[in-house]
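Forwarding these from the shared drive since the link keeps breaking.
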Amino acid sequence: MALTLSELARLVDGDIVRGGPDLLIDGIAALDEAGAAELSFLGNEKYRAQYLATRAGAVIVPRGVTEGPEASALIAAENPSYAFGLAVKHFVAATARVFTPGIHPRAIVDESAKLDPAKVRIHAGAVIMAGAEIGDGSEIGPNVVVGEQVKVGRDCLFHANVSIRERCLIGDRVILQPGAVIGSDGYGYEVVDGRHVKVDQVGIVEVQDDVEIGANTTIDRARFGRTVIGQGTKIDNLVQVAHNVQVGKHCLLVSQSGVAGSSRMGDYVVVAAQSGVAGHVKVGAKAILAARTGVTADVEGGKTYGGNPARPYMDEQRSRALVRQLPKLVERIKALEKDA
């Protein structure tokens, strides 16, 4: 449904900087694709060139921005990306997922499982094993396996081919993307008489409320006790979290990162792409690990780190700058030796 510029501003909690309040906007698009009746946003200075050239009817910009393409109305907001997301929800409401309760006839639900067929949705091929509990409003996608005595909270969404092994705990409003595995065995072996002997992994995984876990990500069960993913944490695709790891609240773990066994993370930690955290170390709250950082010892919270082994990010950047100068330094040394 189309909105006027003034209606859009109210929806996104923004202020009209330029443009008529009755301007009609009926869709959303990227800066370089938007037309005269569509909304876009400027959330990153990398896209300023596209912003200046856009043909969008309206653009959500950061507060303080007053200049832009002549053809575009401007709405200022504290967080343009978030504000644009609110507009997206409005314009795509007609195509949003509709929750329709019921159990597909080709799903397998053990008679001892606890769920209300009138308040959950179980798709074809899903398996709900003995003693499992599914909270109201939760949707279990095609070919998902919910293991024995697993407890799933309310309003969860598990996409196709998710596996949750026995006794694991899933909080409310948890989203599991396709292929995620929760509660696989931790990687534990002991060498006995020259052979690797498997160490039993008898603990569980606890995924707290409002967590999202990406496609083909694996969270290992604890050797004993619990592996914990804290409330509000968002984990990208292709991430590995090992046994007995404790991830704090509202952390971000980005694609291809890995956390080894028994490590601890405080709240609001960011682990960027392809970073690794070694076993039995602590990462302090609000620490940021830049891409490809390797943490091999405890690091303090509230700081940004880079390199392998991890060290303060600016120290790492200065070292890299010096390394880039090495070829020139070598040439200068050769020239001095030649002239000596």
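-- next protein --
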Amino acid sequence: MDSGRLKDDEDAIRSALTQLKSATGIPVTMFAGVLPDGRLQIHSWVGLRTPALQNLIIDTGCGVGGRVMSTRRPVGVSDYSRANVISHEYDDAVLDEGLFSIVAVPVIVGREIRGVLYVGVHSPVRLGDKVIEEVTMTARVLEQEFAVNAAFRRNDMGRLNPMKQGRMMNGAEWEQIRSAHGKLRMVVNRLDDGELRQELEEVCDQMVTPVRVKQTTKLSARELDVLACVALGHTNVEAAQEMGIGPETVKSYLRSVMRKLGAHTRYEAVNAARRIGALP
């Protein structure tokens, strides 16, 4: 793996782990990358208490991560030592660290598994659907980051025209753009001046212009406002307060958005909107 890819992708991974821990309150987040021989290695982490899992190499089909690799699907266990859906080759390392519940999600780019994203807790707490959705959403964001990084490297855009292209944003900087977009849409929603509102909505559109040309599904301004709220982590009640409408109306907009985008959860809807360029 070349140094450019390592640096770009490591920045994205570190940002994702930190943000995931902050968003969920889960104490441990980890990323295991795929080695040339097809095995996994945990090479990035936040919140580990011991070195037991640091740089651990995992065989396909073994443990939580290995099962994710073999099934290409998320895997969660609420009591690791007693879980019967996984094999137990790595019990010593997991128990030395003291992890009890673990959720792991594959990160797939172009049908190739690039790694596995983990969260874990040291106490007997069951990780609910919201945590699983957050981990899945973060994995999808990482997939997009990896894909963008790979595209830049393939085109060698920075080398061909470094003055024009500038430095590629890392994951934290891109997340700041996303946050600014969501907050700007909330400001626009509170404006009474129609002309000013239209101008600011055009600014919002410009933040996603590079990929918006790919958009085929049309979302209304109100639907985009709701999605922007969801992307900021707001609940339906909080979104309703921001937009000056009722929670049931927010739910109605969300149902419409999910139907249009073929999404099953609010977080899938945010990711689908990003893929078509409706959100940054």
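Residues 1-5, 157-166, 210-215 have pLDDT under 50 and may be disordered. The domain at 3-155 is CATH 3.30.450.40 (Beta-Lactamase).

- D.
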